[in-house]
């Protein structure tokens, strides 16, 4: 069976080949009824534009590259959902690669994108961004860094207010009367983890001066949260509350406490960060800091598409539009305690 061509679509839609091309490429100078007729004809004939020919004629691949540290977990699933929604609305494809947290594999993934995509969305949590990315990113390729430390001239950065969110959580726990607040930190070389730890430390020093910080190392996964939970239970004096740098570690900690018969929040409160969908369905439901993860992905995709189109944009690394606000979500696991009476 001969392949369907753009001429076949034009014939069925009763328009010119040029009109079909404009309609399929999303140009605005096509009447809506004509566009709908073209799309209906293309669907009826199961027409697929020839990617190579389109690329040669427009110098565009109609594809966005997405390079992530991992594809496993609810955070990355939600992030991709937001990116995909924007891409689909613009009739763009996605080319996704994961480097499994390995800096060398990250470089290989970035190099593999060259010539295949019109722009890149990169989540690179490593602290040494210029060293790790500078030699692998094509400076001519529009790129948006997600939740990354700034450091590459001319590269847009869109990040979550990790520091502000962590401060808000410590403020809430202190207002609830908790005084011995332990923190389960994320990976030491992760920018998000660094900012959340900084927020915990800053808030603790301001709100409870003289109180020593209590930091247990984690790795942003359930297993490390579970280990941290057991470590905290083995302390001579247990904490009043545990604030984990992400929800996955908080859930692992909750499981460790449940296994040892510790009542949450009656004995120890637990809080997380991210508000992944699962956070509201565990028992007790998790107090956390909400990050609209899908919106983070969607905003990054919209920013990249604007760059590809040559539209001027404010410097997102320094303007308010480059920071995604967080929100305190109070649920059962955070508990409420009566603050101790003031000392005489």
Mean of the pLDDT scores?
A: 86
Query: Tally of extended strands?
Result: 12
CATH superfamily of the largest domain: Response regulator
**What portion of the residues fall into strands of 2 or more residues?**
5-15%
The radius of gyration is: 25 Å
Strand order, largest beta sheet: 2-1-3-4-5-11
Characterize the largest beta sheet: strand count, sense, and whether it forms a barrel: 6 strands, parallel
- CATH class identity of the largest domain: Alpha Beta
CATH fold assignment of the largest domain: Rossmann fold
At CATH level 2, the architecture of the largest domain is: 3-Layer(aba) Sandwich
SSE string, helices as H and strands as E: HHHHEHEHEHEEHEHEHEHEEHEE
Count up the domains. 3
Coarse morphology? elongated
Distance between the termini: 91 Å
Helices and strands in order, then pairings?
Elements: H1 6-13, H2 17-24, H3 32-45, H4 51-58, E1 63-68, H5 74-89, E2 93-98, H6 103-113, E3 119-123, H7 129-134, E4 143-146, E5 156-160, H8 162-175, E6 181-185, H9 191-207, E7 214-217, H10 222-233, E8 241-244, H11 247-259, E9 269-271, E10 288-290, H12 293-308, E11 323-324, E12 327-329
Parallel strand pairs: 1-2, 1-3, 3-4, 4-5, 5-11, 6-7, 6-8, 8-9
Antiparallel strand pairs: 10-12
């Amino acid at each position: 069976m001969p392949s369907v061509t753009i001429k076949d679509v034009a014939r069925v839609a009763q328009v010119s080949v040029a009109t079909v091309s404009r309609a399929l490429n999303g140009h605005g100078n096509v009447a809506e009824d004509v566009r709908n007729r073209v799309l209906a004809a293309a669907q009826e004939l199961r027409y697929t534009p020839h990617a190579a020919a389109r690329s040669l004629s427009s110098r565009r691949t109609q594809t966005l590259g997405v390079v992530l540290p991992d594809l496993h977990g609810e955070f990355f699933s939600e992030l991709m959902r937001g990116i995909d929604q924007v891409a689909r609305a613009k009739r763009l494809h996605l080319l996704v690669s994961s480097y499994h947290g390995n800096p060398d594999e990250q470089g290989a993934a970035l190099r593999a994108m060259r010539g295949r995509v019109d722009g890149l969305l990169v989540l690179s949590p490593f602290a040494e961004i210029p060293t790790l990315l500078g030699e692998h990113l094509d400076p001519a390729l529009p790129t948006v860094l997600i939740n990354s430390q700034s450091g590459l001239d001319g590269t847009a950065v869109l990040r979550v207010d990790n520091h502000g969110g962590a401060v808000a959580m410590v403020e809430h726990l202190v207002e609830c009367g908790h005084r011995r607040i332990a923190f389960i930190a994320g990976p030491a070389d992760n920018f998000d983890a660094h900012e959340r730890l900084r927020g915990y430390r800053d808030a603790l020093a301001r709100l409870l001066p003289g109180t020593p910080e209590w930091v247990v190392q984690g790795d942003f996964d359930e297993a490390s949260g579970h280990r941290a939970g057991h470590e905290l239970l083995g302390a001579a004096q247990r904490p009043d509350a545990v604030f984990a740098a992400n929800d996955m570690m908080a859930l692992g900690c909750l499981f460790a406490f449940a296994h040892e018969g510790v009542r949450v929040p009656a004995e120890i409160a637990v809080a997380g960060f991210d508000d992944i969908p699962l956070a509201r369905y565990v028992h007790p439901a998790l107090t956390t800091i909400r990050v609209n993860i899908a919106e983070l992905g969607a905003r990054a995709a919209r920013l990249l598409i604007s760059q590809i189109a040559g539209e001027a944009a404010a410097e997102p690394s320094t303007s308010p539009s480059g920071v995604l606000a967080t929100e305190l979500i109070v649920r059962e696991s955070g508990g409420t305690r009566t603050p101790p009476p003031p000392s005489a």
